[in-house]
Amino acid sequence: MEINLTSPLKFPKWLGFATAATCIGAAIAGSTLHAATTIFSDNFERSALAPYNYAGKGNVWATYGTSAGSIGIVDSEYLEVNQTSTDPGGAFAARADLQIAADFDTSQAGQGTMKLTFDLDISSYQNNTINTISVGYYNEASLTNLFLNFGAIDIEGTQHNALFLSPGRDSFQATESQIIGYDAGTNEWASGFDFGVYDNSTYSNNGTGSLNVELIYDTLNGVGSIVVTTAGGDVATKSINLENSGPWSNLTNKASLRYYGPENGGTGSYTVDNINLTAIPEPGQIGMVLGMTSILILSLRRKQRHQK
């Protein structure tokens, strides 16, 4: 949609100037502000994880790891990571390569902020000294990484199942301040986010149930944030400072989404579905539209005074 701002703008008399300007602003927003641009998406409605030729760019997914178990699509509905070995040789992982998934136009606004959403259900987990289930964004250039993790965290001397946010996969020993849905000051859990004391004998008691996850990587301001919603509708949020954050244009080299089984050979099982990664328009663009709308409001107001 295009608007010719050099031509007279005429509106019915019954339409107030504020309403008219709002309509114009919305039109401008629709024409100049692109909605969040989809970088990659996958709902796993196929029989095999790979090859998956996304948007005609070639195979995106790869798997690796030395532990026993399986990674694959189940019933053409979701991705399952099922690690069954305690071999410390390495964790299973499914990797979606972003440099293959989409082309990046670094001249466009919004390339510095990304939003990753997906459904997650952790059904079992074994703590093997220091390990976590980790899912999120990884960059081999050692710039911004951001992971949602699940593990057994020490809370007042007790190993407790918990979700936590970290700027990399090296933060296996999380602090209480990183835990999602937990107030370290009051030692209270948010509704729906107390996943119980870690059970060292029945690993299926260590899980989360169905979750919807929204990870936002604001590399321009060096902030990572998360919104987690349970199946019961409970919501918890968390924000952290990112390490070595850089603009999105510097993150396109060897960047990927990664879904890890427990590190250091632990066991665990979880499913992932409805992955969607988007670039978010920058606030500067939105400010530009609001500024143009303000100018239009003033112009219409002057015109109304002149007619009177």
TrEMBL record:
Residues 1-29 form the signal peptide. It comes from Puniceicoccus vermicola. This is PEP-CTERM sorting domain-containing protein. It comes from the Bacteria. Keywords: Signal.
